[in-house]
Design a protein that fits this description.
The chain has helices spanning about 1-10, 10-25, 30-50, 65-90, 90-100, 135-150, 170-175, 195-210, 235-245, 280-305, 310-330, 330-335, 340, 365-375, 385-395; strands spanning about 110-120, 155-165, 185, 220-225, 225-230, 245-250, 255, 260-265, 350, 360-365, 400-405, 410, 415, 420. By secondary structure, the chain is of the alpha/beta class. The two termini are about 45 Å apart.
C-alpha cells in the first residue's frame, strides 16, 4: 500500500501508472501487448538507456562543470598512460622500427607521411591544468605503429611533428617529444603574427602540408594535435587505400582510381552526423535500419503468436512505426559506431560534408591543389581554412570523402584557436 502511494506521488511514475491502467482496460490481448511495448520502451527502457548516451534524443546535458571535470580526469589517465609508455620505451628499438617503415619496399606498398600539427595549449590562462594533447597523440600513434609492424603492415610510413607555435623555444612539450620523434617547426624564434588568427591557422596548415610533401609521399595524413587515433585506425586506413583510393570497386571488380580526390576525412563531429543532417546517405540508412528491426520484430511476433491474426497488416505497421521511433531516438552515430565494433572493413566511404579538419588524408596531387588554392586566399572572421577547402572543391571540381564511423576521437577540451574551454558535451 505504501509503495502505491509513492508511485502516485512521482510525476513520471504517475504518468506510467495511468498508461498501464489504461492498457489493463484494453480487452484485445494483441493491442494490450502493443501498448505495453510502447509504454515500457519509450517511458522506461530508452530513457534509462539513453539519458547518458550522446547523440540520442533522450541525452540530457546536465552539470557542465561536472562533465568538464570528468573529461579532465580521463585526459589525466591518458597522460599517465602515455608517460609510462615513454618511460618504458626502448629508444634503441624505436628508431629502427620507424626506419623500417620508411624502408618498406614490398610490392604494392605506398608511401604515407603522417604529420601532427601542433601549438602549445599549456599557456592558457583559463586554469592551471596542462592538457598535454601532443604527448597523448604521439603515444597513441607509436603504440599503434608498433602493433601493425608486428602484423606486417604493407605500406611505408614516415612520422613527424610540425610545430607551428609562435614561441617554439618555450613549447616544452614539443621539445621533450623531439628526442623521440622528428620535429620540424615553422618559426625558429618568437614570432608575433600580425594576421588574423584564422589566417595564421591556414598558413600553418599550408606550411605543414608543404613540408610533409618534401620526401615525395603518395599520401599525407595531417592530424591536429587533439585528434587521438582509434585502435583500428591503420586497418581502416589500409582498407580505404586498397578499396577506395588506389583502386575502387565497379560492379564487383577492382579497377584503378582515376577520380580527382582532394582529401579524405577520418573525423567529423558526431553531432553533425545525425539522420537529420541531410546528406544523401542518411535517410536511406534510417529506412534500412527501420526495415531491418521491423522485420525482425515481426518475425519474432509471428513465431511467438502461433495463431494467424486477422489484423496482421495493422500489427506489422505498428511494429515498423515502433522500429522507426527506436532507431530515430537512439541516433545514427550510435548505430554507425557499431560498425567499428564488428569489423574495420565495415566502414563506409561517402561524400564529405563541410567543416572540420582534425584528420585529413591527402593524395599528393590533392595536397598540391590544396596548397596552391589556400595560398591564394585570405582567411578572416567566419571564413576559416575549412571554408576555403569547401570553395576549392566547388571551383576546381574536386571531390572529398568521409570515412565513417570516425577513426579519431576529438579530445580538445581546451581550444588553441579560441583560447577557451569548448562545450564538453560535443568533445
Amino acid at each position: 500500500m505504501r509503495m502505491m502511494q509513492i508511485i502516485r506521488q512521482c510525476r513520471c511514475c504517475n504518468f506510467l501508472w495511468r498508461c498501464l491502467t489504461r492498457i489493463a482496460r484494453v480487452k484485445n490481448l494483441i493491442n494490450r501487448i502493443h501498448l505495453l511495448l510502447y509504454s515500457i520502451t519509450f517511458f522506461v527502457i530508452l530513457p534509462i538507456m539513453c539519458f547518458n548516451m550522446k547523440n540520442s534524443l533522450y541525452f540530457v546535458k546536465h552539470n557542465e562543470m561536472g562533465m568538464q571535470q570528468f573529461l579532465r580526469e580521463k585526459n589525466s589517465e591518458r597522460i599517465n598512460e602515455a608517460q609510462h609508455y615513454f618511460e618504458m620505451l626502448d629508444r634503441t628499438k624505436l628508431n629502427p622500427m620507424l626506419q623500417s617503415f620508411n624502408d618498406n619496399q614490398k610490392a604494392g606498398s605506398l608511401r604515407i607521411a603522417i604529420t601532427i600539427i601542433t601549438v602549445s595549449r599549456n599557456r592558457h590562462k583559463i586554469d592551471s591544468y596542462e592538457p598535454m594533447y601532443l604527448t597523448q597523440v604521439v603515444w597513441k600513434f607509436l603504440s599503434l605503429l608498433q602493433g601493425i609492424k608486428a602484423e606486417g603492415f604493407l605500406h611505408q610510413v614516415t612520422f613527424g611533428i610540425c610545430n607551428v607555435d609562435h614561441d617554439p623555444g618555450t613549447y616544452d612539450e614539443a621539445t621533450n617529444i623531439s628526442h623521440i620523434v622528428p620535429v620540424f617547426q615553422r618559426f625558429n624564434k618568437v614570432h608575433f603574427s600580425m594576421v588574423h588568427t584564422l589566417e595564421k591557422e591556414k598558413q600553418d596548415y599550408v606550411f605543414c602540408l608543404n613540408r610533409s610533401l618534401e620526401n615525395n609521399p603518395d599520401y599525407v595524413l595531417l592530424v591536429e594535435d587533439d585528434a587521438l587515433p582509434t585502435a583500428d585506425f591503420f586497418h581502416v586506413l589500409d582498407y580505404t587505400l586498397n578499396m577506395h583510393l588506389n583502386r575502387r570497386s565497379v560492379r564487383g571488380e577492382l579497377v584503378p582510381q582515376f577520380e580527382d580526390i582532394a582529401f579524405v576525412k577520418f573525423y567529423h563531429p558526431e553531432n553533425l552526423l545525425s539522420f537529420w543532417n541531410l546528406e544523401r546517405e542518411r535517410i536511406p540508412e534510417l529506412i534500412a535500419l527501420t526495415v531491418l528491426l521491423g522485420t525482425v520484430l515481426t518475425g519474432v511476433f509471428v513465431f511467438v503468436v502461433k495463431d494467424k491474426q486477422p489484423n496482421m497488416s495493422a500489427i506489422t505497421g505498428s511494429l515498423f512505426v515502433y522500429s522507426f521511433l527506436v532507431v530515430a531516438i537512439i541516433g545514427r552515430p550510435n548505430f554507425t559506431n557499431l560498425r567499428s565494433v564488428l569489423s574495420p572493413y565495415l566502414h563506409t566511404f561517402t561524400p564529405a560534408p563541410s567543416c572540420c579538419t582534425p584528420a585529413l588524408l591527402f593524395p599528393s596531387r590533392g595536397a598540391l591543389e590544396v596548397i596552391s588554392y589556400l595560398d591564394k586566399i585570405t582567411c578572416s572572421n567566419n571564413f576559416g581554412k575549412d571554408s576555403g577547402l569547401d570553395n576549392l572543391l566547388a571551383e576546381r571540381k574536386l571531390r572529398a570523402y568521409l570515412v565513417q564511423p570516425n577513426t579519431f576521437t576529438h579530445i580538445g577540451l581546451y581550444s588553441s584557436l579560441r583560447d577557451k574551454i569548448v562545450d564538453p558535451f560535443i568533445v
